[in-house]
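> @MW can you paste both from yesterday?
MW: sure, first one:
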Amino acid sequence: MRLFTLALVALLALIQYPLWVGKGGWLRVWELDRQLLAQNTTNARLLERNRALEGEVRDLKQGTVAIEERARYELGMMKPDEIFVQIAEPGASVPGAPSTSSTTTLSAAPSNPGRSVR
């Protein structure tokens, strides 16, 4: 009877091994579920980024406001009849200004399309 019990326990262990540790076992399923949750989180973040980029592309294609804004802030461009005025904070170094001045400096440049004045 003792031998029969040991044989049944061994058979049960052999049956349980693939269920827990095998290729399609519970441990692998839990690991895949964890990876799936992490990938869904990443996908949601990337989807939001893509929607923001889509909106920016749509703005650039349809209107001139977004293009003008980028040209002004990233490239420093101006319209033909505009005057560029830069206000520096007190104590900040301004290129071309005397270094002893501690007052707010205003600098104006004539309008020149395609030229950045800073």
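MW: second:
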Amino acid sequence: MKGRGLDIFIGKTLLQKTDVFMALNNTSIHANSHLAIMGKPGVGKTQFLLKILTDIRIQSSFQTNFIYFDYKGDVVDNERFLKVAKVQPFQLLQGGISLPVNPFVLPAYDEQTINVSAREKAESFASINSKLGVVQKGALTEAIRAVYAARQGSEAPYPDFQDVLEIALAMYEEDNKKDDSLIEVLRDLADFDLFWRHGSENPPIDRLTTRTLLIDVHAMPVLKELVAYLVIERIYKEMASLPDSPPMIFSRNFLIFRNY
């Protein structure tokens, strides 16, 4: 794959019947690799996307990975796609399956990195859930900082959502505060067992950018967007720690797809 682009066949022109290819990762042609597939219901948008993803996996010798968020639950049962593209599915809230991802894993655990991460999560929680105000953002930031401090020096220096919930509940009790929208969100994240937690049989995934996953969230009554955000944030932090990619043609990519 080194030095080669991903030239994906997407069809033929209507008049000349000329083959049309999409050089997805050639930055001499495209300023970015964003892609939108639009059409009326039933015209085959999802099948077209699965064809593109399968071609990408095969052409890259399975070195280009992706994460697919299945909001409708209409792809997770496509056994042929999962097998040919070598995709690992996770059906959240179905059969006790949780995602082996810990959103609190950081590249470093110094005070500044922890403080920035805690603030980022609080801001993002508030942007996704309009019920979280300034007070809740501050409480979440302090709770996250506190759970990292509690795990400092341990073999696994990162907390899980149960840790954050327990700290937040203790803070609220100390201040004689009643449960609010923040506690509700944290309790859902902990009780639904969506993400990896301490005591799990296997450790969390070390690097998401080396895995190809399908995350089925269609059975979740709430938190779909928050789950997607937390996964994407982990990927962003991983990729930000990598060296710059060479210009023109990348030999390796990572892709994120959401199917609404």
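> thanks! DSSP finds seven helices and six strands in the chain.
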